Amino acid sequence: MDCDRPIGVFDSGVGGLSILRALRAELPQEDFVYFSDAAHAPYGEKDEGFVSERSLAIAVDLLERHRIKGLVVACNTATAAAVHLLRAKHTQLPVVGVEPALKPAAAWTRTGHVAVLATRSTLASAKFRSLLDSLHGQAEFELVPCDGLAAAIEAHDSERIAALCERYTRELSGFGTAAGEIDTVVLGCTHYPFATDVFRELLGEQVQLVETGQPVARQTRRLLERQALLNPRGEGKVRWQTNGSPQALRGAAARWLGL
Questions:
Q1: CB under 8 Å to 4, separation ≥6 — which residues?
Q2: Alpha-carbon torsion 140, 74, 15, 126, what sign?
Q3: How confident is the model over 39-76, as pLDDT tens digits?
Q4: Contact assessment for residue 55 and residue 73, using Cβ atoms and an 8 Å cutoff
Q5: Structural domain count of the chain
Q6: What residues are annotated to the active site?
Q7: ∠94-99-104 over CA atoms, to 5°?
Q8: Which range of residues forms the domain containing residue 142?
Q9: Fewer beta carbons within 10 Å, N or C terminal of the chain?
Q10: 91 and 106 part of one domain
Q11: Any known ligand binding at 11?
């Protein structure tokens, strides 16, 4: 049956595991195939044409090899570059992308000041600029391109992660709950939630950290329900596929998902 087929999830590396974590919590009976395009990571420092080409190729591979029933583009950069192309090419396939959580951040901020940490490619994309423009007047957004942070998380380089998080938060104005201070920070790359503890130590408990996993998981459920594709009897299995190091992917899944 179609509902028994797995959901495909892909990212340039291990960052998409933060989305997979939310998907498994929301849809515990669904089976997944996770593709890590580690040979080309990170996407955030590649040009848009290359990322689009890789995204289209991965979708075809997941369809042909695993007969996926839905696709989650678990990467902000790939979503900005290619989600419209994927939807146009695979019109019957539910395709869910991710975007920096600016809308929830604008709703939650009390000071009206929000920081957005993301890759340079995401911040420069037309999709992101359109999202930002749609929220004009709802909050002040300070944008910080975090070069190298996704790669450091990919490599599980704790010292470099700490140094880069400190460097990029230092570029911003003051954090806190007083007027004019930043009280909400958007983690605008799927890798960044895996540095939450570092950000929390730097920013304190009063600053909200916003990521995209739960909204993506809820949207995936909605699209599958609409096409009667929810699996009532799946076992929550995950199959792993990578063109990089299987050991690195296995280690990240164990470290961050307990798998």
A1: 31, 231, 234
A2: negative
A3: 998 888 789 999 999 999 999 999 999 999 999 999 99
A4: yes
A5: 2
A6: 75, 189
A7: 110
A8: 102-210
A9: N
A10: no
A11: yes
